[in-house]
């Protein structure tokens, strides 16, 4: 891929499953083609692994997602959290930053609408996350 700003997406759909293959996806300090780690969470409490988790797909709600310390994310990698149940409107997904860190100045963030998602970008000062 010659233009790093281009994201190629291939979508295959069967009656019950949608598969998305993303090529050339990059974060602010990532290189095009970096592998992104996907983790499925079946509700409850989940602690995001700072070294490996990039995309958190929540398959049962309610759920609480605890974020790692911003400084522990290599290369300022983003984290995406997705309501795969399309049920967060009635059973929220709560996202909690590490320690005194915040998400846009808030001590927690909720995905509170069906099918919602959020992409969190580390702040350059390591004080929390942007969306």
Question: Taking all residues together, what is the mean pLDDT?
Answer: 79
Give the amount of beta strand, in percent. Answer: 35-45%
SSE run: EEEEEEEEEEEE
Strands of the widest sheet, in order across it, are 3-5-7-11-12-9
For the largest beta-sheet, the strand count, sense and barrel status come to:
6 strands, mixed
SS field, number of helical segments: 0
Overall geometric form: globular
Radius of gyration: 15 Å
Characteristics:
mainly beta; single chain; disordered N terminus; globular; 131 residues; six-stranded mixed β-sheet; four-stranded mixed β-sheet
In short:
With 131 residues, this protein is mainly β. The protein has strands spanning 8-13, 18-23, 38-41, 44-47, 55-58, 63-66, 79-83, 93-96, 102-103, 109-111, 117-122, 128-130.
Description:
- The chain is mostly beta strands and 131 residues long.
- The protein contains no helices and 12 strands.
- The protein has strands at residues 8-13, 18-23, 38-41, 44-47, 55-58, 63-66, 79-83, 93-96, 102-103, 109-111, 117-122, 128-130.
- The strands form 3 sheets. A 6-stranded mixed sheet has the order 3-5-7-11-12-9, with no helix packed on it.
- A hairpin with a 5-residue loop joins strand 11 (117-122) and strand 12.
- It is globular and about 35 Å long.
- The two termini are 27 Å apart.
- Residues 1-33 have low confidence and may be disordered.
